[in-house]
# Entry
Amino acid sequence: MSVRQSQKEATRKRVLDAARDLFESRGYEETTVREIARVAEVSVGSVFTTFSSKGDILSQVMADRLDALYAELDRVVPHLRGSTADRLASMFAIHYAFETRRTKLFLAHIAAAFDWTLEANSRPFGRNAHLMQVVRDCLAEGLVRGDVDPATDLDIIVDALMASYAWTYRLAAWNGSDAEAMSAVFDRHIRLICQGFAPR
# Structure
């Protein structure tokens, strides 16, 4: 790696570290690119040399964090047992446990899904292809195992689960609920949703 590339990578890391901490402490809306640059001790121009927008920065912060989560899910999911509902509950419990380490950051990630100014390449919650595929694969396995009705539209179920999962984070925002409390509520949502796709 050349000196220039090394400097650019160091700047990128400082920007992402600063942004992650600011999004967590102040929230996405309240954090400005100027403030990220100040905390990272780089110029605003340096930020925009590496990232196209604040939304792009948040997408990269979350992508870097989620790599570790998806590695964990990929390791654990093949060993999950029980019904489709049980396996879904276990998968999302892992997600809650991971994201409640930085709840405000994940709330910022969810909030960015409703920012209509984001570029098409930004990846707020909902454009998360990996998690959605893991959930869809779990449902598809349920089809094979016979506890998911073959007439079920799996994409609609994935959407319903993702929406319910995100909505449950209101408990963290409003009540300071932890991963266990949110998992307990979401488990009830999963059971209701699964009743809809159970074979008749």
User: Anything to note?
Assistant: The mean pLDDT is 92. The radius of gyration is 19 Å. The CA atoms of residues 45 and 88 lie 44 Å apart.
